[in-house]
Design brief:
By secondary structure, the protein is of the alpha/beta class. The chain is 41% helix and 17% strand. The protein folds into three domains: 80 residues, Arc Repressor Mutant, subunit A; 223 residues, Rossmann fold (3-Layer(aba) Sandwich), CATH 3.40.50; 76 residues, Helicase, Ruva Protein, domain 3, CATH 1.10.8. The longest helix has 16 residues.
Length: 429
């Protein structure tokens, strides 16, 4: 990745301001007091240093919070751990904490303000991302793709806009989309644990989705997590509700929607057109965000908040685009790439790589016979998925027979018979 591709926060990480007093925070001080009290209630006893670690604030701030809570008789010191107070919640503090937990059970790291979130996400958005041919070649070295397709993908990434991958089933659209995430993962971005909006908490960081980077610069605001640019993939399970804030009625705080978690990275909508929501519902929901890079989310009371839509959305489908969207929406999808069937040369190369991956000796002559069989007898085009699927059939059969897999005529024919549907029903069945 070139120097020009470095994102803003990675370059300026050493200069990110670390709040050293409550007055320097971008969120209300009373919210931090309430968070500290809830954490202390659940912990029983802890040191001020432990409190700082749980809240992801510096020690002076945690000590200031302790002093405030002790002054209000909500907690007290019960001992020393070296030069650090060990503290416990008081009976009045316990009663207050239970009231707070009834309103909001969030006890994670201190959140950042919505304004800070917007500023940071804009600074490291995908419109600042830049790739070159060597970057694409490195990411896609394990796939067999023609130069035209690689060129289109590289151009699409540099646009910072969404990509529409379409073509017949089994041609590798999902694999290509997933491999694009490796391109994005070469850069790092700062993402918050949570965002505060008018006293409400929205969690953003998700350890299942976000890959945290360990070599974090010193003296940074630890409410932010240094991660690889995120990659989120959704498929048939996607519903319209997943595109808005997810309010948990038990914990009484929100989880950010999929596009918020994918901000500064890539969101893959796989098998587009086969979701539980209609394609036009999804397209209408995102027609403005895709165009203006701004999304609107709704809090439980109906209030709308504006957040950045700084991500590349990749739609992968085997349905023709004109069957899924009208002209107005297709215009907003700046790049449309058709992923078609493969040539004989590409089929041979894919087969060779798949066989090498499982330790099979690949016979080019037998692959040529397979190509003829697929095209003449089965009347099927050459799809990129066939080599992997057929080799899997050979390996599974060998495992059943209790012997090493062999790429030979008999095993190949059994694999073909087990994988492909017959062209016509057997007579007498």
């Amino acid at each position: 990745m070139t120097a020009a591709a470095c994102n803003t926060l990675e370059v300026t990480a050493g200069r990110v301001h670390v709040p050293s007093t409550l007055d320097e925070f971008d969120i209300p001080g009373n919210l931090l007091e309430e968070l500290a009290l809830k954490i202390l209630f659940l912990a029983g006893q802890m040191s001020v240093l432990d409190l700082a670690g749980r809240m992801r604030v510096c020690f002076p701030v945690a000590n200031e919070l302790f002093q405030r809570l002790r002054k209000e008789q909500l907690c007290d010191a019960v001992g020393m751990l070296g030069n650090v107070y060990r503290i416990a919640i008081s009976s009045s503090g316990r009663a207050r904490a239970m009231e707070l937990l009834a309103l909001n059970q969030y006890t994670g790291p201190a959140p950042v303000s919505l304004e800070s979130y917007i500023q940071q996400i804009r600074a490291q958005g995908v419109h600042n991302f830049e790739v070159h041919p060597e970057d694409l070649a490195r990411a896609f070295e394990n796939l067999v793709l023609d130069q035209k397709t690689l060129y289109q993908l590289g151009t699409a990434i540099n646009s910072g806009h969404s990509i529409f991958l379409y073509g017949p089933t089994g041609t590798g659209k999902t694999t290509i989309a997933a491999t694009l995430s490796r391109v994005f993962a070469e850069q790092r971005v700062w993402l918050p644990f949570a965002v505060e909006v008018e006293g409400q908490i929205i969690t953003v960081y998700d350890p299942v989705i976000h890959r945290q980077v360990k070599d974090v610069p010193r003296e940074v605001d630890e409410r932010w997590v240094l991660c690889e640019r995120p990659a989120v993939q959704v498929g048939g399970e996607l519903t319209i509700d997943m595109l808005d804030l997810q309010f948990n009625p038990v914990t009484r705080f929100y989880a950010g929607p999929v596009q918020m978690k994918a901000n500064c990275g890539i969101l893959i909508v796989d098998d587009f057109g086969r979701q539980r929501l209609r394609p036009d519902e999804l397209l209408n929901r995102w027609i403005v965000p895709l165009d203006r890079r701004t999304d609107f989310l709704t809090l439980a009371g109906g209030k709308k908040i504006e957040i950045p839509f700084e991500l590349v959305v990749v739609f992968a489908t085997n349905i023709h685009p004109e069957e899924l969207a009208d002209e107005a929406f297709l215009r907003r999808l700046q790049t449309k790439i058709r992923i078609g069937t493969v040539t004989e040369e590409q089929f041979h190369e894919i087969f060779r790589r798949v066989c090498a991956g499982v330790g099979l000796q690949c016979d080019p002559e037998m692959v040529s016979q397979l190509i003829g069989l697929i095209r003449t007898r089965l009347k099927q085009p050459l799809r990129a998925c066939y080599p992997r699927d057929i080799v899997n059939q050979v390996c599974w059969a060998a495992k059943y027979e209790g012997k090493p897999p062999m790429f030979e005529a008999a095993s190949l024919m059994r694999a073909v018979e087990g994988y492909f549907l017959p062209s016509a029903p057997d007579e007498g069945n």
